[in-house]
Amino acid sequence: MLLACVMAFAAHAGAPKVSSGDMPPDIFGKDESGDPISLENHRGKVVIVTFWATWCPYCLKELPILENIQNLVGKERIEVIAVNWKEDRDTYRVVKHRLKDLTLTLTRDTSGRIGEAYGVQSIPHMLMIGKDGRVDTVRRGYSEEDLEDIAADLNRLLQAPYVATMPTAPASAGSAR
Length: 177
Hints:
It is found in: Cell envelope. This is TlpA disulfide reductase family protein. The chain is of the alpha/beta class. It has one domain: Glutaredoxin (3-Layer(aba) Sandwich). The chain is about 30% helix and about 20% strand. It has helices at about 1-15, 55-75, 90-100, 115, 145-160, and strands at about 45-50, 80-85, 105-110, 125-130, 135-140. A five-stranded mixed sheet has the order 3-2-1-4-5.
């Protein structure tokens, strides 16, 4: 039994972690229309990614709050992607029907593969991604007591200028100086 616990911990310890400054993976599943959800499509906006589940009361309270923020700020400036984490398809469908009036992007991660790419081991788990597409803030296991700090981070990101980064073009052979 002890060996099994140690092995389970070791497996989680090796899970990839997404940290501040990282370019996050560009995988989130598909939207309602079946189109892939891509961070690249939201470059220039602040993106909030939250991993949630129906058994997490705080998560269910958080979704309408994030919806209100997105509506107040405008979808052209902020995008909320809410990833249902490790719940079966039927559970997700029921709750998605209850949340049908929300305009934030809902997707699911039944297998936990998406969450694993982001280092999610428990929820709530939130990433705030800046306009440049880089992770600014990662919050794990937060609560209502953290709302003031979350709001401050969000305001800072919204006020930051967007500086588009261009890929560096390789120098061509024989180019004039």
